[in-house]
Amino acid sequence: MRTHTVSISLSSFGADAVRRLGQASYLPLLAAAGARRVEWREELFDSAPDAATLANLAAEHGLQSLYSTPLELWREDGSLEPAIAQRLQLASEIGAVALKVSLGHYQDGCDLPALAPLLQHKTALYVENDQTPYGGRLQTLVKFFREAQAQGVAPGMTFDIGNWYWHDESPLLAAQLLGRWVRYVHCKAVARRADGRLVAVVPEDLDLAQWRELMTHFAPGLPRAIEYPLAGEDLLALTARQVAQLAELEGQVCHG
Q1: What digits encode the pLDDT tens for the residues 99-147?
Q2: Longest Cα separation, the chain
Q3: 3-state class of 73 per DSSP?
Q4: 240, 32 contact by CB (below 8 A)
Q5: Most CB within 10 Å of its CB: which of 17, 97, 173, 217?
Q6: Domain 6-247 adopts which CATH fold?
Q7: Nearest to residue 81, comparing CAs of 127, 47, 49?
């Protein structure tokens, strides 16, 4: 069976633990577990990251990098976030294949051609569906990608499977409508707690079956990321099982 690139978002190990130990401390675990990519999380750095250090550490462990920032592409007034260019440069210095951002406040009148210089960077720009009501809903994202495509400035998309549930929207319908732009898949199952809150959880067999169907709407073999809790006494064994599971996840329509 073919295996595909699996990334691990370092937030999966718990924000408090990652901040205490440092993101780089998890690289040996990722490499030993069979992951091929680390997703650095800007919000988990206590200070500005040293790009050269991160690049060297990732290379030492044979890992690709992707850099995630909480910045939103479009500001509330509809203007392009100027700090995105700086983050692309930082991601490039880290050696990241892409910078992941959220859509933000996309609206009529946004200057789509202003995206062109950002897309000429050697580090790709990926826009993710997040949990915000203004930037994470399917209708808004479809509008953005279609209009950006029409003007020749469509970035890639990070498709977060779990985030659709925060809007009570169908991941399958989203995959059907957005699949042509997807370049990276964030995988997380979602459960509702007793207090009504939605939380990310480890996938079960039904989740994996649904994910296989989603994958039929994306280009074959896209990198996929773990973004659900990884915690246990034998963290290496647990992480390795989850990595292998996602690496072998093929896109095939499931019946019955």
Answers
A1: 999 999 999 999 999 999 999 999 999 999 999 999 999 999 999 999 9
A2: 52
A3: strand
A4: yes
A5: 97
A6: TIM Barrel (3.20.20)
A7: 127
Reported pTM: 0.96
Show the 3-state SS of 96-144. Answer: EEEEEEEEECCCCCCCHHHHHHHHCCCCEEEEECCCCCCCCCHHHHHHH
Tell me if 148 sits within 8 A of 113, measured CB to CB: no
For 147-157, the pLDDT digits (tens) are: 999 999 999 99
Residues facing 191 on adjacent strands: 199
The dihedral sign for the CA sequence 139, 142, 145, 150: negative
Q: Which residue, 73, 69, 78, is CA-closest to 107?
A: 78
Domain boundaries, the chain: 6-247
**Cβ 162 vs Cβ 227: under 8 Å:** yes
Alpha-carbon gap, residue 166 to 172, rounded angstroms: 15
DSSP 79: -
Residue 43, token pair as written in the block: 């919000």
DSSP symbol at 216? T
Beta strands 6-9 and 37-41, pairing class: parallel
* Angle, CA 173 vertex, CA 171 and CA 179 arms, to 5°: 85
